[in-house]
Amino acid sequence: MARPKSEKSFTQMLRIAIQEASDDGKSTKLRALADRLVQEGINGNIVAIKEIADRLDGKPVQVNENHNENMNYEISDRPLTEDEWAEEYATGK
């Protein structure tokens, strides 16, 4: 689904603004934001620490223990016999 033009133009303007010189004239606003994020992390802001870690190391992969793509399921209209069930689900395996 395509973004409306108004969203795209805002994104473009944000990219332009972030690359402009910061108030000190020595760096960009993007650098000023990065410096602020690092300082917040140093001050103990857990959200800033998480954001920095996600940017440097990547977001952690979430594991869904209830889902295994490698499992093969066999669907049958017939219930298992006692012997079949015992063979399939015996705890001594």
Give a brief outline of the structure.
The chain has four helices and no strands.
Report on this model:
The chain is mainly α and 93 residues long. The chain has a domain at 19-57. 53% of the residues lie in helices and 0% in strands. It is built from four helices and no strands. The protein has helices at 5-19, 29-42, 46-57, 82-89. Helix 2 packs across helix 3. The two termini are 50 Å apart.
Rg of Cα set: 27 Å
Helix content: 40-55%
Q: Provide the succession of SSEs.
A: HHHH
Biggest β-sheet, characterized? none
Unreliable stretches covering 5 or more consecutive residues = none
- Ends: how far apart? 50 Å
Instruction: Give the overall average pLDDT.
Output: 83
- Global geometry: elongated
What are the main properties of this structure?
mainly alpha; 4 helices; elongated; about 90 residues; about 0% strand
Topology summary:
Layout: H1 5-19, H2 29-42, H3 46-57, H4 82-89
